[in-house]
Amino acid sequence: MIPFDNREGFIWFNGKTVPWEECKIHVLSHGLHYGSCVFEGLRVYDGHVFKLELHVDRLIHSAHVLGFDIPYTKKEINSAILEIVSIQKIKDGYVRPVAWRGSEMMAISAQKTSIHMAIATWPWPSYFSPELKLKGIRLKISDWSRPAPNTAPIDSKAAGLYMICTLSKHNAEKEGFDDALMLDYRGQIAEATGANFFMVKKGELYTPLPDCFLNGITRQTVIELAKKNNIEVHETTIKPDDLLEAEEAFITGTAVEITPVREIDDYKFKIGTTTVRLIDLYDKLIEKEKSQA
Questions:
Q1: What is the pTM of this model?
Q2: CATH architecture assigned to 130-292
Q3: Of the CATH numbers 3.30.70.260, 3.30.470.10, 3.10.20.90, 3.40.50.300, which one belongs to the domain with range 10-123?
């Protein structure tokens, strides 16, 4: 793995393209110490940035939820993303916009901090290996739970919310699993560490209500594709015991796209026709949006 602080090229940083290795922030930045930081993740397919508008809208919304305004307009952010993708000559890859409070104040209250923003992009064809995606991944139910909506800003893509995701994924990997499945504060199925969860029962889709976790853009896209193609969708409460009745399972996200799940603890699933069909529909949507760009 090439370290992310030692790569070639440029990063868009506060309105300028800065050489990759020179892109630095101060060690006393509020975003580092107190989690006042939001980010996004976008996919690039054959040079086309997928769902650009929706991701930038969510980035701006996340900042508002955390109480700050990004000092660039949506149009400027869109242009900056396209610019850095072009400069880095990314054909198939990932884009990471991030915005955070600076270092003018070091305290819980940080009303007078400046707001910084950076956009980096790099080649990244697949989150999981193609071989692993073909046979399905293995999930372990995490000991960490998604917090209640009155305890965290759950409708933002805020950096601090991912601490329990890292802990959960590390614990799962130590036991030989590929990722973790997180329950919510009520003991109901919520999501994986960086992706939303779906299961299939009798050809119909079931997915948890996003009332305490992020309603992913890929999640919304898959639901829309399913409904357009006469696949019944149920956004509902799912308990761990409900996995006994599921025939298929998969996770969705910008990075993981649609990735089949073959095991969750002792529950086992097949990669069935509904999952395969949705993967095909998703791939066709990517091709359609590329051709219209």
A1: 0.94
A2: Alpha-Beta Barrel (3.20)
A3: 3.30.470.10
Q: Concatenate the DSSP letters of all residues of the chain into one string.
A: ---TTS-SSEEEETTEEEEGGG----TT-HHHHH--EEE--EEEETTEETTHHHHHHHHHHHHHHTT---SS-HHHHHHHHHHHHHHTT-SSEEEEEEEEE-SS--SS--TT--EEEEEEEEE-S-SS-HHHHHH-EEEEEEEEEEPPTTTS-TTS-BGGGGHHHHHHHHHHHHTT-SEEEEEETTS-EEEESSSEEEEEETTEEEEE--SSS---HHHHHHHHHHHHTT--EEEE---GGGGGG-SEEEEEETTTEEEEEEEETTEE----HHHHHHHHHHHHHHHHHHHH-
pLDDT digits (tens, 9 = 90+) for 118-159: 999 999 877 676 677 778 999 999 999 999 999 999 999 999
**Per-domain boundaries in the chain:** 10-123, 130-292
Q: Which of 51, 133, 140, 157 is catalytic?
A: 157
Q: Is 130-292 the same fold as 10-123? A: no
Q: What's the pLDDT tens digit per position in 152-190?
A: 999 999 999 999 999 999 999 999 999 999 999 999 999
157 is catalytic: yes
